[in-house]
Amino acid sequence: MTVALVAMSHSPLLGAGSPLPADIDRELTETFDTARAFVREFDPTLVISFAPDHYNGFFHELMPPFCVGFAAESTGDYDSPTGPLDVPGDLAASLAQSVLDADVDVAISRRMIVDHGAVQPLEILFGGIDAIPVIPVFVNGLAQPFAPMRRVRRLGEAIGRFAAGLDERVLLIGSGGLSHDPPVPQWATATDVQRRLLLDGKNPTPQARAAREQRVKDAAAEFVVGHSTMRDLNPEWDNRFLDTCAAGDPQRFDDYHHAEMTAAAGSSAHEVRSWVAAFSALAASGDYQVSTRYYRPIRELIAGFGLLTAAPTPTGH
Ligand SMILES: O=C(O)/C=C/c1cccc(O)c1O
Ligand SMILES: [Fe+2]
Q1: Which of 38, 114, 196, 300 registers the highest number of CB atoms within 10 A of its CB?
Q2: Gene3D superfamilies from the entry (predicted)?
Q3: Taking Cα atoms as reference points, which of 157, 163, 174, 5 lies closest to residue 88?
Q4: Is residue 258 annotated as a catalytic residue, yes or no?
Q5: 60-104 pLDDT tens trace
Q6: What is the pTM (predicted TM-score) of this model?
Q7: CA separation, residue 46 to residues 4, 41, 83, 101, 239 (Å)
Q8: Atom 11 (ligand 1): residue with closest C-alpha?
Q9: Is the shortest distance between the CB of 296 and ligand 1 below 6 Å?
Q10: Closest residue by CA, ligand 1 atom 9
Q11: Domain 3-312: homologous superfamily in CATH
Q12: 195 C-alpha vs ligand 2 centroid, how far in Å?
């Protein structure tokens, strides 16, 4: 087995928001333990991480649909760890070249800033952000306009073919989703002040960052008690998406349309693009099987929270 996958929702409120009900807390701990055991058994030598950004590293000033990091640093939003990731730059450059050779356009960054979206799975699975070499792949999941899903699939397939040719055990991580609509400003409805941040909000003041984070924490608290105008989580949509991931036929992702996704599952449901890229990458190695499937709508986290692990089907099955 040279590739394996963990796809999971993330939430900056995990650990930074109000305490979770004990049963949910227990369930998540068990699920993360299971995922960690899966990763330990696979014993990866390299991670390819597909993740969105939440206007910490990528802004409307220049917003690519996809970007491969040749070097990356965590910004430390919501008290996540700061500092560099261990990115093998030459290998990341070869990956980017192979994607371009496959007719999929991808931006590159020699100074990528990543946030909780990329960092949280690394912390949960490896206990740190520099514990293992990681090639970070930014997949835009927040800023309209969005690439069609078939394009995300082709990105994933190209990267999957590259990964399958390496003499490495590659863990594919897809981070984000599922249904959720946290109060991250949208360009179309943003105020002038918000638009300035969306356009180029790098290096916010500590006060501006704290205000943004408090706004999201307050929104979660209102969501929990039912006093919220946020779009509700959509477990039915989420479970159908998990079924599609488990089906092993990435072309089925092509049926997801951006406007329908927003309407059914919220503005941030587009973060599932990271899952689509990761599963399409896995499928490039042939049939696969999902081994762990967890899902629960968790309002405290403003997230339809899911986690899947998957690996190629053993030959002979
Ligand atoms: O970036 C933010 O301020 C909030 C992000 C967020 C909130 C809830 C669930 C998520 O997946 C998020 O990324
Ligand atoms: Fe997110």
Answers
A1: 114
A2: LigB-like
A3: 163
A4: no
A5: 999 999 999 999 999 999 999 999 999 999 999 999 999 999 999
A6: 0.97
A7: 11, 14, 19, 22, 29
A8: 11
A9: no
A10: 11
A11: LigB-like (3.40.830.10)
A12: 19
